[in-house]
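hey m, so remember when u said the tokens were messed up on ur end? i reran from scratch. heres the input so u can diff it against urs
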Amino acid sequence: MSEKTKKGFKMPSSFSVLLIIIAIMAVLTWIIPAGQYKVDDAGAIIAGSYESVKAHPQGIWDVLMAPINAMLGKAPTSAAIDVAFFILMVGGFLGVVNETGMLDTGIASIVKKYKGREKMLILVLMPLFALGGTTYGMGEETMAFYPLLVPVMMAVGFDSLTGVAIILLGSQIGCLASTLNPFATGIASSTAGVGLGEGIILRLIFWVVLTGLSTWFVYKYADKIQKDPTKSLTYATREEDMKFFNVGENEEEVNSTLTKKQKQVFVLFVLTFVLMVLSFIPWSDLGITFFGDFNTWLTGLPVVGKIVGSSTAALGTWYFPEGAMLFAFMGILIGIVYGLKEEQIISSFMTGAADLLSVALIVAIARGIQVIMNNGMITDTILNWGKQGLSGLSSQVFIVLTYIFYLPMSFLIPSSSGLASATMGIMAPLGEFVNVRPSLIITAYQSASGVLNLIAPTSGIVMGALALGRVDLSAWWKFMGKLVVAIVVITIALLLLGTVVPFLQ
């Protein structure tokens, strides 16, 4: 370690940042008055029902227990164990795949195939992830892709940050410009009492403009890194990252032709991710009943149905427990198909899971912030303050301030569905008084939630992605700084356009 490194400021680890934020939130529970809104049977907040309650200040014990309660779940905060376990099973799956050598050979093949046109990968992949974000809220599901894409990006001459940006920025820009996302747009629309399709034209404009801007931004950065690797924001750790991701300096030394067994592994590997994507998309909410009908038919068969399992869930209804099962099973199957011995399968699976243990813990600790706020009963108080501040404004001022209001709220409540449930029952009726339709308020909410979930240390998606890509939070903030400013400016301009062009609302 150089003398300069010793004396210079070093950004705390992700764990330290999250624990500091938890402690700060605990202090705020001693300062901010406690309060709560009444909720209906569906869990939506009833407008005008806010009332002060007895203070619930959070102490040292509460701070220490917050990550534990976040992992295991403590009402009203949902448990993070399902996401954490899913991440561990993805790690185990990748551990077995790595044991077969398929990934190393596959990466070498991609490097060879895209020699001279490496940046085409960015132009193809980022819109695909953005499409996943806008349609079904692709977020935690992306954790499975980082260990795959980051080494590919490094192998073709870019850096680990480029790989993280393609997935994280791509998917979350899609969430920012959600169109059919049932977890953001769907819940918000339902709570506000409007149809899912209301406001979709403006959101499509958001998606096209911001996806194009973000793709161009990452493309320019990757081009700069390819020409001069020292310009990389992660150049200081490049050698360590290359070793960690098992990326050779000279791809020509690595065999780029898959063996027969590796081709079989590749087919199962691709099938796993196809099934994951298909299983997480809420097809029934999109009006597609094929998977549900097929599952009903299959499980209804006299003998076959019982063998398959009468409780089998249809694709489109799966969540993280089922996803964890998929990766665990496919990891074992790949090991068997490749011909690995039992002890090799177990050993490689456990090693892979161990590699992602820190990521699983980060996701839980990030949710600990919500535990402190909910237990301290200050979330509704902050919401009520915002409601009071937004009353009696012009439509243009109202929509801009609504967007600004949702920025800190998205920091405090990083869950888009949770934020929608907590606020839309109040904000939608409030907008009616200043001639702002609920659909435009929904667009403002998901735009603010989307941009904060690109950089917020309270977001398990952000912190998990950075941990998987071995990218420091400070480097990510430096990378995203100018882009975030541009996104905010464009968002405000489009929201203002929505107030003066009626059909865009």
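this time it looks ok to me. The longest helix spans residues 200-227. if urs says something different then somethings off w ur setup not the seq
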